[in-house]
Amino acid sequence: MKRPSASSLALCLGLVFLYAPLFILVFYSFNASKLVTVWGGFSGKWYLELLKDEQLLDAVWTSLIIAFYSASMAVVLGTMAAFVMTRFRRSWLKMSLSSMVTAPLVMPEVITGLSLLLLFVHMADLLGWPAERGRLTIWIAHSTFCAAYVAVVVSARLRELDRSIEEAAMDLGATPLKTFFLITVPMIMPALLAGWLLSFSLSLDDLVIASFTSGPGATTLPMVVFSSVRMGVSPKINALATLIILAVSLIAFVAWYIARRAERRAA
């Protein structure tokens, strides 16, 4: 019998370390007891209780809406920044823009959230806008730091492109704007999708920045979960997390299946 190699053993241990907590969470979502860490029998009642919890469902809906619009805006801003970072000639303005765009990647979220809070407060005092903090301010804040991640992903793709295709399109009479949308965008579409999904995940998962920039009328899912942890975790959180894991797994499987079919057709 062939003994497993050290790399295979390390891979298995790494997968167990990563996914064992998720399996435990899914298992305890069917716990009949109100105590999360005490098994009280098999039951699916917490899924029914989850459907009755309007506060939790409203937080999920708020998080999904903010994450969708934040990811979309981050793709627009990040692509514009990446285009400037890769296509414009070197100058101190370009270097300054690159530094400012990538700063949120290394800056602590507490500093980012606090600075955005002070910005919104001063804008409300001087301009009267935003009148109150809520979904709009969270959307602006999330778009700001998610755009940095999109800029890094898209700029890496733009540096690898063969610019002769764009130059050929402009030689044939296409305007720079038409060349960008008909030639450049399709070639960088995988990077745009990757940046959008990354921004969606970061916005959906954010707690610190949302806590600084939210108001009484807007509570995201991480904020609800964090507040419930301090008071004692409800098994409904396990049920909600299980549904999220199921949704992500289905999306990943569908994406893998589509990619595999495309590879077979290309072969």
What tags apply to this protein structure?
267 residues; mainly alpha; 11 helices; 0% strand
Look at the structure and give the mean pLDDT.
87
Total strands: 0
User: Radius of gyration in whole Å, from Cα?
Assistant: 23 Å
Order of helices and strands: HHHHHHHHHHH
β-strand percent reads under 5%
Derived from helix and strand composition plus strand pairing, the structural class reads mainly alpha
Low-confidence stretches: none
In short:
This protein is mostly helical and 267 residues long.
Give an overview of the whole structure:
It contains 11 helices and no strands. The chain is mostly helical and 267 residues long. It is globular. The mean pLDDT is 87. The longest helix is centred in the first third of the chain and has 34 residues. α3 packs antiparallel against α8 and α4 packs across α6.
SSE layout and pairing:
Layout lengths: L5 H23 L16 H8 L1 H34 L4 H15 L2 H19 L7 H26 L2 H9 L4 H30 L2 H6 L7 H11 L3 H32 L1
Helix pairs in contact: 1-11, 2-11, 3-4, 3-6, 3-8, 3-10, 4-6, 6-8, 7-8
